[in-house]
Design goal:
The chain folds into two domains: 189 residues, inorganic pyrophosphatase (n-terminal core); 117 residues, Roll (Diaminopimelate Epimerase, Chain A, domain 1). Helix 2 packs parallel to helix 4, helix 2 runs antiparallel to helix 5 and helix 5 crosses helix 7. The protein is built from twelve helices and eleven strands. The strands form two sheets. A six-stranded mixed sheet has the order 6-7-8-9-11-10, with helices on both faces. The radius of gyration is 19 Å and the shape is globular. By secondary structure, it is of the alpha/beta class. Helices cover 37% and strands 19% of the residues. The structure holds guanosine-5'-monophosphate and manganese (II) ion.
């Protein structure tokens, strides 16, 4: 599956790698591991990223990310962890400067774009596809590359808890541990460390919780003004949905946060009986069976009622 990708990489020198807007651990992990690996074989490679949560700042080389393409044109754009090209963290202008595009993704029902794509729907993380590609290219994985692959695998599998975790995911992880990736440090930084305002956001989210269908659906909305007044940075306001799904009997949880541009970001989690990616796709977003999302641009109350009705028909 990687021969066409290798051909593109072989003939390219200037390469940019981009993930999705509002990057999560897998987007960052797959982009930076790809970038560092390409540098090892002499490519002039850079990650494009507008903003990311402070919590990832401990990772090596992360501050080297660029916001824009500096050249008039470049050979290859590698797009990771984004099921459609609308969500890429790059301007249309910079996207169009690429001579070729390689897409690497693992979401459900993707809209393939670019010249070559490597799509594996049943892998839990784009970082696992990148891990396989790096091995196919015969590039030695060092500790920095490994730290990023580990970050992607660990975050997109919920620390290897989600049923999407494959034996191959654990075997890749074992290799990373073998080469000395400091997995315990990465876990501590990403799973057990947060800024105090975020702790208050968890409290606010739970305080605003609404319960429907005998507890099968738990919903919470936090307006943008409240996120600001708590002192939480916009890109750090994610990750609340998992808490809402914890009470016994919850099938689906929905966390909606207001954004600075007036839109609302919807994040859904499911215990597995309901495919939330279908619901997200219906509203113009995407994701996986157990984790999916989309953006609301219209009236919140109207959109909320539509969403609750759809979930009610499934739980
Ligand atoms: P989260 O709830 O953590 O923001 O996202 C869960 C999953 O849904 C991730 O795999 C993410 O990529 C996907 N997702 C979230 N929001 C959107 C969206 O607006 N569009 C698409 N296509 N996927 C999304
Ligand atoms: Mn992912």
């Amino acid at each position: 599956m990687f021969s066409k990708a290798k051909e593109l990489i072989d003939k390219s020198n200037s390469i940019y790698i981009v993930g999705h807007i509002g990057p999560d651990g897998d987007s960052i992990g797959s982009a930076f591991s790809m970038c560092l690996a390409l540098r090892k074989i002499g490519k002039n490679a850079h990650v494009l990223m507008q903003q990311c949560s402070d919590s990832f700042m401990f990772l090596p080389h992360i501050k080297e990310a660029r916001k824009t393409v500096e050249e008039e044109s470049y050979d290859l754009l590698v797009c990771v962890d984004s099921s459609n090209n609308d969500r890429l963290d790059i301007s249309k202008e910079d996207y169009n400067k690429a001579k070729s595009i390689l897409m690497i993704d693992h979401h459900k029902k993707v809209n393939p774009y670019g010249d070559v794509n490597c799509i594996v729907e049943d892998l839990p993380a784009a970082s696992e596809i990148v891990y396989n590609l790096i091995n196919y290219l015969d590039i030695k994985i060092d500790k920095d590359i490994g730290a990023y692959i580990y970050t992607g695998l660990m975050t997109d599998t919920g620390s290897f808890n989600y049923s999407s975790t494959r034996p191959s995911t654990l075997m890749a992880t074992a290799k990373l541990v073998e080469i000395g990736v400091d997995f315990s440090y990465i876990c501590d930084k990403l799973n057990h460390t947060l800024k105090e305002p975020k702790l208050k956001l968890i409290a606010k989210t739970i305080d605003n919780m609404e319960v429907y269908f005998n507890g099968k659906l738990r919903y919470s909305y936090v307006p943008y003004e409240d996120i600001v007044s708590l002192g939480v940075e916009e890109e750090d306001a994610e990750g609340m949905t998992n808490y809402l799904r914890m009470p016994e009997g919850t099938e689906v949880s929905v966390y909606i946060r207001g954004k600075s541009d007036g839109t609302k970001k919807v994040s859904m989690r499911s215990g597995g009986n309901v495919d939330v990616s279908e619901i997200a796709i219906h509203f113009g977003g995407g994701g996986h069976v157990r984790a999916a999302g989309y953006t609301i641009t219209g009236d919140l109350e109207t959109e909320k009622q539509k969403l609750i009705e759809i979930i009610g028909g499934k739980v």
